[in-house]
Amino acid sequence: GRWSICGITGNFTNICVKISLSCRHDDLKEMLDSNKDSLKLEAMKRIVAMIARGKNASDLFPAVVKNVACKNIEVKKLVYVYLVRYAEEQQDLALLSISTFQRGLKDPNQLIRASALRVLSSIRVTIIVPIMMLAIKEAASDMSPYVRKTAAHAIPKLYSLDPDQKDQLIEVIEKLLADKTTLVAGSVVMAFEEVCPERIDLIHKNYRKLCNLLIDVEEWGQVVIINMLTRYARTQFLNPNANVSVSAEGKEDKVEAAALVVKRKPYVMDPDHRLLLRNTKPLLQSRNAAVVMAVAQLYFHLAPKAEVGVIAKALVRLMRSHSEVQYVVLQNVATMTIKRRGMFEPYLKSFYIRSTDPTQIKVLKLEVLTNLANETNISTILREFQTYIKSMDKDFVAATIQAIGRCATNIGEVRDTCLNGLVQLLSNRDELVVAESVVVIKKLLQMQPEKHSDIIKHMAKLTDNIQVPMARASILWLIGEYCEHVPKIAPDVLRKMAKSFTNEEDIVKLQILNLAAKLYLTNSKQTKLLTQYVLNLAKYDQNYDIRDRARFIRQLIVPTDKSGALSKYAKKLFLALKPAPVLESPFKDRDHFQLGSLSHLLNAKAGGYQELPDWPESAPDPSVRNVEVKYPTCSMNIEQSSTEEQKKSTKSKEPKDRSDSESEDEEESSTESSESESEEESESDTDAKKKKKVLLSISINHTLQGTSLRYYILKKWRIYVSFCVALLLKCSFPSPQAASPTCGPLKTYELLHRITGEGLAVTYCFSRRPFTGDPHMVSVQIQFTNNTEVEARSLRVLEPKLQSGMRIAEFPEIDVLPPGEISTVVMGIDFCDSTQAANFQLCTHTKKFFVTIQPPVGELMMPIFMTENEFKKEQGQLMGMNEITEKLTLGEGCRGDHVIIQRVISTANLSRVPCGSAMECRFAGKTVTSGSLVLVTVVTKEERAAQVTVNCEKMLIGTMLVKDILQALSQ
Amino acid sequence: MIHSLFLVNSSGDIFLEKHWKSVVSRSVCDYFFEAQERASEPENVPPVIPTPHHYLISVLRHRIYFVAVIQSEVPPLFVIEFLHRVVDTFQDYFGVCTEAAIKDNVVVVYELLEEMLDNGFPLATESNILKELIKPPTILRTVVNTITGSTNVGEQLPTGQLSVVPWRRTGVKYTNNEAYFDVVEEIDAIIDKSGSTITAEIQGVIDACVKLSGMPDLTLSFMNPRLLDDVSFHPCVRFKRWEAERILSFIPPDGNFRLLSYHVSSQNLVAIPVYVKHNITFREGSSQGRFELTLGPKQTMGKAVESVLVSSQLPRGVLNVNLNPSQGTYTFDPVTKLLSWDVGKINPQKLPSLKGSMSLQAGASKPDENPTINIQFKIQQMAISGLKVNRLDMYGEKYKPFKGIKYMTKAGKVPEGRRDEAALP
To answer: Which residues lie below 8 Å from residue A573, measured CB to CB, with a gap of 6+?
Structure first.
């Protein structure tokens, strides 16, 4: 019977046929009530198969819901499937199952907690809203990130069940947005988008974190986050292309525009805006088309014009994917090509049409090709179009002819070529081709009719053969409109048309009437009778539009005593100069919808679409995104993992299921530590002591445990180490917006005083970022301030006088520095690991100044990361002459290793080495030019006594560095 | 996000439905059927169809439409990509993704769909995680299950989703540790009737089959990584490492997966490994036309061109053909006018040819369309771009794995030879 379809094994088929004849589902109820799991499972499988086929199984609800607490996992799962499907219809009975889930929420296993919450929140029964709310709130602060993720998923479910809970749910969202794990990020942003997309203020504090986590979030979460951040950026940052559009706008207002540009501050991109662009770019390489599209739209809407180009290659790559993907991508490319044609021009050939493309893809490619056409490539494109016209796909041929028409209107140079090509098509054997050509030619002729009376004549002859109504109508309109160009043929055409009038289609009839009226006005001698004949025919036509038109025309053109003043103007009315139609892309201006969205694709606002806001005139306060960064120490998670290890070390003495629990623990703890790895701002209530505790516990374990654990600890250690690298790198390359307090503000030195510089003041600082282009150079950030009343022009470096071996990478010349403005550039100097000064001249367009940059010894190095053991090993090799030790008394304010670390790092560009002793601080770096190691140890003793040791192959550097550090610490 | 999913077969029957939120009546599919009727070909059904209360987003794979019902704004590619992922998963589980396979495994299908989406938002789409949650059916297991009443659902709760590498399942153990990589390249070219190339590009993928115990960390380097113009990665690949050193460094998923897709830019001259000589003529007034086609290899570095398949859509005016292939077999469908010739292997000493006559509709005028010739082929042991894997190293585990790399070149989905057309008199 009908059961066999759903894959039931043979022995049941007989029963089922019987059942379907008598009582419904009794056998299933029996099986569900039995004690055997296998029978229950079989019954559930059949029920699920029914649900899958859309059959109603709701009467089984009481029998099924009883099994919600079944021990067998598969039965349980299938019961969940059933429950979620029918709970809405059987609310009272569904409540019976709730207590099971409530118990599940308290289970020690995180996966069971998560799945209980998942099912509970999927049961759409309003009565349990308070229970759900409670469960979500609790899960949102669960220890397990997986449970927190599930909580985020539950939020939109509850919201759709009861929108009144919005305020409370927003609180949960706010809490979860602050979560620092990649697992939660995507899900909570999805909840944010569904519940409160307007609360953009909730994003501020999490903005940088989201940007930084992005690359590690799962693909689906990435799409949601990127789309949300696009909107966010549109409300918080300035338009990077504002200046461009002002100067491009009106040529006549050029002076004014130029003035505007000058008045406006030179655009400086907000570092947070840059952060977003930088962190999304690698995702263009994602295998997921939705992610690539999301990044592409972000760049299209947010990036400076010069940078948008990178997305073209990635989008072209998507064109090799499934045809549905192509369809969506091409729609978006079509919109982009209107605004940013240049971007896709290098990929023109990728849009060539292949005979096996589905028609809807062909038409879209044609659209893109048309948008890409310009003076230089038009001949190639037209040659390509010519082959398309020979295609067997007639819809596509028609679209090609339209495309040729559009190219002809857009590019004046090829108008005649196109027109000739289209005229040739008029002799094509396929009527559809001819008809489409006629329609397009009509539009083209309207642009310059006087030159083409021969074409009009040629077309007039076509009326004998061509049957497609639209084409006939077009020809008649042309003849009527330009009857003075074809004075002989026009009346004859009207004569023929009058003959066939009754058999014509409505649109043709209307044009016959038009033609008659126009001829009557210009050549009434020959056509008066004909016109009246046609008007009479139309008077009795079945279509009231045609009857109407006939009456209207008669009143206008045939003067009677009743006809009013209008008939005097009949000629002006009918033969007015009509503007040529503009053939434009249907994708024009579609970019007011966010690209990649459903609304953009449909060109209509879909429900729940969030408008892409316009750029603000002036940027809102960027400091809202600042997050308090405390002294970065190792985070709680590491701490946790260490305690787990301790647990383990005790556990290992018990023989019971050791291997099992161990592997599970390992799993959990390694997850957590990897999470902390990706965290940028660490939770920082723990201090350095805790970190030491971790290290201690690890080393204790190391001695206690056998080899099996050693590997595990080493692994843990690696994760911990890489985490520290992340933190340390962050402190040693402070970015101005988020200067980590570890190294304090950068010291600024004066290069040129305002007075000696005659109004031009120049300062410099060592930015401590690696100099791009040459790793052996120190980057020096130079800031020019123009205090004069006039512009300073062509600021540049001239004739550097350098000691042998030193090199300078000059900054790019500054063209103009308007009065009162500040400009910052970066140059690279290779100091050859010496504190010798670099002398050079700074020039403006009128003056030259001799200047000198002398680096403090601490800036000649860059931080490297080392473990404690590596440090000790290296230190051992740099003894004797290479080691310099000095004793000192710490200064008043220099208490605690926190301050010591900060002072040392601000004196020298070094990074901290994790270390197991509270009395010691170690730092490592290497010189920029030769890469010689620089190792610094600060040992604190009782009272305020301390000792500084520097190990460095370059003794001079070592001596100078010790001096500098001594000074810094004894202040 | 995704509200419901309907699976529709080629005869227009809904054979499976799944709802992740409130139930949407299957009558919503009527709008889909309307669009299907309007479309001339199955692949011309618009992927996105608006209806008064919902939006339907569909993909067509293996002659099954996967129709997702959407209620509000969502990026269409998000849904499309997800639906394709569903199909890939079914294929991975059942070997094929056909109506019969889905119906036979309806419970597994349902369990999979339940895990893949939560409230319409993707939850677990990685094959490794899903396989831990729901074991794929095998014949042996089906037999065992029916006898013992045990299940396909994993006994232990999966931990994969919680791991540092969410794409790899934990506790993998093999007695033979093996890693195989297939470098497969496709040429995609358009050749005009004079034989000159209009466009040609090479797309490649590296598909991996990795069966290694534990948590191996692999690096794969190329002799000539500069060839790769544009790449997209499996999420396991460390992007930074690639940017800096052009090395693929990754902890692989367990089993089969696509490590990398790449594109070799068309700036590099693409040598097309086969050529076609043809002469297709129709004479005005005659009801006969001539058809001649010869294939030959070029620049294949001594490797054989295999599994060659030529197909061509002949003009509508052609009633039938009478051809004589020097090797292989040919078929002509008088309704669709599709000529296809299964050539097999090209022997460079004796080039395959297909010659004969075509009969045209009496009295019909000479067709003016250009028959397009599509060619499919395969070349083993060669990557046409010249891409070579340099070495594969494994870290993190102690055993010595067996490593294998295979190269293959084939014609793309839409292969060379378009508007390779008959010279018109």
So the answer is: A556, A566
B80 contacts A290? CB cut-off 8 A:
yes
Q: Are A285 and B315 an interchain contact pair (Cβ–Cβ within 8 Å)?
A: no
What is the length of chain A?
971
Q: What angle do CA B115, B116, B122 make, to 5 degrees?
A: 130
- Whether B75 sits inside 8 A of A290 (CB atoms) is yes
Report the relative pairing of strands B197-211 and B178-191 from DSSP bridges: antiparallel
Distance CA A300, CA B150 (A): 54
Q: Which of B106, B170, B233 sits opposite A285 (nearest CB)?
A: B233
pLDDT tens for each residue of B134-190? 877 766 555 555 555 555 555 455 554 556 677 887 778 888 899 999 999 888 888
Q: What is the ipTM of this complex?
A: 0.89
Tokens of A125: 């029964």
Interface test with A, best of B119, B229, B257 (most A CBs within 10 A): B119
B93/A contact by beta carbon, under 8 A: no
Task: List the single residue in A190, A285, A391 with the smallest CB-CB distance to B232.
Answer: A285
Rounded Cα distance between A902 and A908, Å, is 10
Q: Say whether A759 sits in a helix, a strand or coil.
A: coil
Q: Are A42 and A25 in contact (CB under 8 A)?
A: no
Q: Does B158 touch chain A (CB under 8 A)?
A: yes
Q: What is the DSSP letter of A503?
A: G
- Work out whether the CA dihedral A819, A822, A823, A828 comes out positive or negative: positive
Residues of B in contact with A153 (CB under 8 A): 118-119, 121, 123
- Is beta strand A760-770 parallel, antiparallel or unpaired with respect to A778-786? antiparallel
Spatial strand order of the sheet with A838-843 comes to A814-817, A792-801, A838-843, A848-853
pTM of the model: 0.70
Burial A770-807 (b: 16+ CB within 10 A, else e): ebeeeebbbbbbbebbbebeeebeebbbeeeebeeebb
Nearest alpha-carbon partner for B205 in B269, B259, B273: B259
Q: In what order do the strands lie in the sheet with B55-61?
A: B14-19, B2-8, B64-70, B55-61, B48-50
Q: How many CB atoms lie within 10 A of CB A599?
A: 21
> What's phi and psi for A871, nearest 5 deg?
-55, -50
**What is the count of residue pairs from A and B with beta carbons less than 8 Å apart?**
252
B365 touches chain A (CB under 8 A): yes
Closest CA to A908 of A958, A836, A854: A958
Q: How big is chain B, counted in residues?
A: 425
Summarize pLDDT for A440-456 with one digit per residue, the tens: 888 888 877 667 778 88
Are the Cβ atoms of A390 and B370 closer than 8 angstroms? yes
Mutate one of A355, A380, A603, A674 to test the B interface: name it (highest B CB count within 10 A). A355
Across the interface, whether the CB atoms of A664 and B159 are under 8 A apart is answered yes
DSSP secondary structure code for residue B268 in this structure: S
Query: Nearest Cβ partner of A157 from B82, B119, B192?
Result: B119
Instruction: Calculate mean pLDDT across residues A580-607.
Output: 87
> Residue A118, Cβ neighbours under 10 Å: how many?
24
A74 touching B, CB under 8 A? yes
Q: Are B21 and B69 in contact (CB under 8 A)?
A: no
Using CA atoms, how far residue A917 sits from A318, A639, A712, A913, in Å, is 55, 17, 23, 11
DSSP state of A124: -
pLDDT digits (tens, 9 = 90+) for A21-51: 445 678 888 888 888 888 888 899 999 999 9
- Taking only residues 382 to 401 of chain A, the set having a beta carbon closer than 8 angstroms to any beta carbon of chain B reads 384, 387, 390-392, 395
Spatial neighbors of A910 by CB under 8 A, at least 6 apart, are A732, A858, A861, A863, A904, A923, A924, A925, A934, A936
